[in-house]
Amino acid sequence: MARKTKEAAAITRESLIDAAQVVFCKYGVTRTSLAEVAAEAGVTRGAVYWHFKNKADLFKAMCARATLPLESMLEATSRADPDNPVGALRNLMVDTLQHLARDPRTQAVFEIVFSKTEACAELGQVAQRRDDERCECLAQVEILVRRGVELGHLPADTDPAVTTQLLQSCMGGIMREWVMNRGAYDLESAAPAMVDCIVAGLTTRPPRRNERVRPRVRARSTQSA
Predict the structure, then answer these.
(1) Which residue has the higher pLDDT, 27 or 185?
(2) CA dist list (Å): 160 to 13, 75, 135, 142, 167
């Protein structure tokens, strides 16, 4: 009996997250009430509060459900062949884009995050957590870039920090633009060639470290005045 009750609670929780995804996308996070989420899910508002403390908690659960596969990919990359960091980086980017292209749930959540999430104090902690997770992701990518430099797969004067930011900007831009216009092209089939183009530039003309040029010291004259 307890098992059935637990399973029923899990189903209700998932239905609430599904409902939140629908109404957040329709009205925006700030303008959506928990009563509207409950109505969309076909439950009482009390059921919402049974599973989630507040709207921020519900929003966090929605994001976590969609981004968990991406986090798993990143963990897999950290366990990848240490002798092929550039290949691991390439596979991570392709897998991330193709996962987005295949998963409607992730697409919907990214659309909400990109265009339906207004800045407000209510979501402050959630935004901070997202920033922390983003920093952790970038740190893992930078480790791969540094390893590529150490092995000679990338030029010795590659700037790992700037390269990581460049990769983040490229990936973020592709994902945002495609999510906002999904009919523009087939992201799943285009992803490998798009990523290969990025990697080709990375291996041949990456951002370089700026070496400071030392000023030339004028030799003192040994002749007496």
Answers:
(1) 185
(2) 42, 20, 14, 6, 10
- pLDDT tens-digit readout, 98-142: 999 999 888 988 888 877 666 555 566 665 666 666 777 788 889
Supply the pLDDT for residue 122: 59
pLDDT of 195 > 90? The answer is yes
What are phi and psi for residue 56, nearest 5 degrees?
-60, -40
Bridge partners, residue 208, by sequence: 158
Question: Does residue 30 register a pLDDT over 60?
Answer: yes
Per-chain mean pLDDT for the chain: 83
Burial 115-141 (b: 16+ CB within 10 A, else e): ebbeeeeebeebeeebeebeeebeebb
- C-alpha angle 24-30-35 in degrees, rounded to nearest 5: 65
Rounded distance between C-alpha atoms, residue 93 and residue 74, angstroms: 10
Domains within the chain, CATH numbers bracketed: 8-52 (1.10.10), 63-204 (1.10.357.10)
| Neighbour tally for 142: CB within 10 Å | 17
Report whether 100 contacts 175 (CB < 8 A): yes
Is the C-alpha dihedral spanning 70, 112, 133, 57 positive or negative? negative
Is the Cα torsion angle 31, 132, 18, 186 positive or negative in sign?
Answer: positive
- The percentage of residues in the chain with a pLDDT greater than 70, rounded to a whole number, is 77
How far apart are the C-alpha atoms of 221 and 2, rounded to whole Å?
94
The answer to whether 45 and 34 have CB atoms below 8 angstroms apart is yes
